[in-house]
Specification:
The structure is a single chain. The chain is an alpha+beta fold. It has one domain (3-115): GTP Cyclohydrolase I, domain 2 (2-Layer Sandwich). Helix content is 32%, strand content 37%. The chain is built from 4 helices and 4 strands; from the N terminus they run E-H-E-H-H-H-E-E. A 4-stranded antiparallel sheet has the order 1-2-3-4, with helices on one face. The longest helix has 15 residues, at 72-86. 18% of the residues are buried.
């Protein structure tokens, strides 16, 4: 399987179960691995055949900005659904981390894998 990855994407989101968390934007880190939708760009070398990483990043930033669900688990699920539906990949791994959410903890989060067959 050929994979594309986006690591350490920082987005601002109002996410969390406490009222104060939903009123203040927090930095959330996203790491994604996607199965390449096609092998064509590996052979053709043409940008027109490739997945546009910038569009994926732009879409994820817009999603995070628009009232995401309160739980990291649901946020990760919605990110996976979005990527599978909009970018033609058959499989995705999504890791979502809140940075500095708890004292003495650098990051806390969830990781999921989803595929279109699910």
């Amino acid at each position: 399987m050929n994979k594309i990855f986006i690591h350490d994407l920082r987005v601002e989101a109002r996410i969390g179960v406490y009222d104060w968390e939903r009123h203040l934007p927090q930095t959330v880190r996203l790491d994604l691995e996607l199965a390449a939708p096609s092998e064509v760009p590996f052979h053709s070398g043409k940008i027109a055949d490739a997945l546009d990483y910038a569009k994926v990043v732009e879409r994820l930033k817009a999603f995070a900005k628009d009232a995401p669900p309160p739980l990291l688990e649901r946020f990760a699920e919605k990110v996976a659904e979005l990527v599978l539906a909009e970018f033609g990949t058959p499989w995705v791994r999504v890791r979502v981390a809140k940075l500095g959410a708890l004292p003495a903890v650098r990051e806390i989060g969830v990781e999921i894998e989803r595929s279109k067959e699910r």
